[in-house]
Recover the amino acids of this structure.
């Protein structure tokens, strides 16, 4: 599935060009583009790298296949790992990944596995976010209706 930005890059080019006209990006230490593991391509990221972005951030949330399924994420663990190489291929050295923790039923082993995978990817920044099923989201409705299954089943 292509993102809006991949299908229609002109608005993002205009935003990028306008941003550069307003800000002296040489004084901005990080200019970040975010993407999802299931839609990012090297061409997509190269486009932003060529417009001055110097950091790529991606919300992988977890590398646990069952956890990703329960979160209704569109990407799988292999895509979550592979997005780092895609970003490197596009010229990004400053790569950040986001993980979530604090899931109902989450084990220390699951957390440990996620951190071990992250440590092998050689990224420069890692952000942890607490799991919080926001009211009004599909995930919240599923949890309220069915409960939340842990990563063991």
């Amino acid at each position: 599935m292509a993102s809006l930005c991949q299908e229609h890059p002109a608005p993002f080019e205009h935003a990028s060009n306008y941003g550069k006209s307003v800000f002296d990006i040489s004084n901005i230490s990080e200019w970040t583009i975010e993407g999802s593991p299931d839609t990012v391509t090297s061409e997509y990221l190269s486009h932003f790298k060529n417009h001055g972005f110097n950091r790529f951030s991606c919300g992988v949330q977890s590398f646990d296949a069952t956890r990703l399924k329960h979160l209704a994420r569109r990407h799988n663990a292999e895509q979550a790992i592979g997005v780092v190489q895609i970003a490197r291929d596009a010229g990004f050295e400053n790569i950040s990944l986001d993980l979530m923790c604090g899931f109902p039923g989450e084990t220390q082993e699951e957390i440990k596995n996620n951190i071990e995978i992250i440590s092998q990817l050689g990224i420069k920044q890692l952000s942890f976010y607490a799991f919080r099923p926001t009211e009004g989201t599909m995930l919240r409705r599923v949890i309220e209706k069915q409960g939340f299954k842990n990563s063991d089943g």
